[in-house]
Design brief:
The chain contains 14 helices and 14 strands. It has 418 residues and is an alpha/beta fold. Helix 9 links the parallel strand 10 and strand 11. The mean pLDDT is 94. It catalyses: (2R)-2-phosphoglycerate = phosphoenolpyruvate + H2O.
Length: 418
């Protein structure tokens, strides 16, 4: 196995993501196996994320990734040739050291993550086990790790803010079915999604069912309550009123202005916005809020977490950036009780795993997330299963790059529990 695990070739190329923008795809070969990974990219990126490299040339309006590709082919590949894909932590540390910067701005997080996950996938193939089981072995440190549950899907219905191209300022309106089997969760979510489509068509015309970056509908609405009322109606008409909770990605950094929040033509203080969230939670069955405040507003993150922690999970996305050190800080000040985990925010598999372990140390919930610019790669599904994440956020039950993740979860459920 030792010889079979050695890296023979790493090669990258530029491909397009789901938004039609360039991204990196990495191919890796050992003497016995081949793997590949396509790197996702976000549109609402926090300032503390690891930095992806863009070419900033005329081609692709400056969004090309030839530099990141060249960094893989010319710098990373020669250094990793001959290394064992089973030495994940060693390879990730080598990547970090070759880059030498805090936010991976030399080689680019898009280059580093592409190689890191391609190595991980090859390791699972060498071991001849499914990727989720290989991840579980690494995460739990056991050779025989029993996976007892699957993550719940946080299914996107309506998009706003940077994702939707409408006047809604909340970025994502999602539902989480509260039943046991994933295949039933997905079915119910899909039925509600299709019911909402019919409602929107009837009330606002066919243009209202155009979709945003992640497959959710993007009707021309301007108030969060209107979107929530439409979702509530769809849930009721589909017949699942008692089986659904609602999750919101607020993405408050997008409407933060000079120590206040300009939301729906009103100016809110942090405490004023807290009252607004409290009222929402009394009216609608909200189970989680993601980034309810600006990414540096530690004080108000702490206040809302203390106020709602027994009822609602407060997920940190831009606040935490999947960074173990920021998770430690958040825990000390009680700034949230949930981690939105995006491996590309931190740049290597090993660091993403450390972030998950740090969150679990504080009994936080973990939601593994896709990005707005994604691909049909299903790595995050295996990752969510392998670390025992509470939920997975992969978009609407619509668009191939989103549905691919949910379909992979159907396969895993059948493998594990049928």
């Amino acid at each position: 196995m030792k010889e079979k695990s050695k890296i023979k070739l790493i090669k990258a190329r530029e491909i397009l993501d789901s938004r039609g923008n360039p991204t990196v795809k990495v191919y890796l070969k050992t003497s016995s196996e081949e793997s590949n990974f396509s790197v996702p990219s976000g549109v609402s990126e926090g300032k503390y994320e690891a930095l992806e490299i863009r070419d900033k040339e005329k081609r692709y309006f400056g969004k090309g990734v030839k530099r990141a590709v060249n960094n893989i082919n010319q710098i990373i590949a020669p250094r990793l040739k001959g290394e064992s894909v089973l030495k994940q932590e060693r390879i990730d540390q080598m990547l970090i050291e070759i880059d030498g910067t805090e936010q991976k701005s030399c080689l680019g997080a898009n280059a580093i993550l592409g190689v890191s996950i391609a190595v991980l996938k090859a390791g699972a193939q060498v071991k001849k086990i499914p990727l989720y089981k290989y991840i579980a072995q690494i995460f739990y440190g056991k050779q025989k790790t029993q996976i007892k549950k699957l993550p719940q899907p946080s299914l996107l219905l309506i998009e706003g803010a940077l994702h939707g191209g409408n006047n809604l300022q909340i970025q994502e309106f999602m539902i989480i079915p509260q039943i046991r089997l994933f295949r039933e969760q997905l079915r119910i979510g899909s039925e509600i999604y299709q019911t909402l489509k019919l409602i929107l068509n009837e009330k606002y015309g066919k243009a209202s069912t155009n979709v945003g970056y992640e497959g959710g509908f993007a009707p021309l609405l301007n108030r969060a309550e209107k979107a929530l009322d439409l979702i509530s109606l769809a849930i009721k008409k589909a017949g699942y009123l008692s089986k659904i909770k609602i999750a919101l990605d607020i993405a408050a950094s997008t409407f933060y202005q000079k120590n206040s929040y300009k939301f729906e033509d009103k100016i809110f203080t942090g405490s004023g916005l807290l009252k607004y969230y409290l009222n929402l939670s009394k009216t609608y069955p909200i189970i989680s809020l993601e980034d309810p405040y600006f990414e540096e507003d530690w004080e108000n993150f702490s206040l809302i977490t203390q106020k709602l922690k027994n009822k609602i999970t407060i997920f940190g996305d831009d606040l935490l950036a999947t960074n173990p050190e920021r998770i430690k800080t958040a825990s000390k000040v009680g700034a949230c009780n949930g981690l939105l985990l995006k491996p590309d925010q931190i740049g290597t598999f090993s660091e993403a795993l450390t972030a998950a372990k740090e969150a679990r140390k504080h009994q936080w919930k973990i939601m593994v997330s896709h990005r707005s610019g994604d691909t049909c790669d299903t790595f995050i599904t295996d990752f969510a299963v392998g670390i025992g994440a509470d939920s997975i956020k992969a978009g609407a039950p619509n668009r191939g790059e989103r549905v691919a993740k949910y379909n992979r979860l159907l396969e895993i459920e059948e493998e594990l529990f049928s």
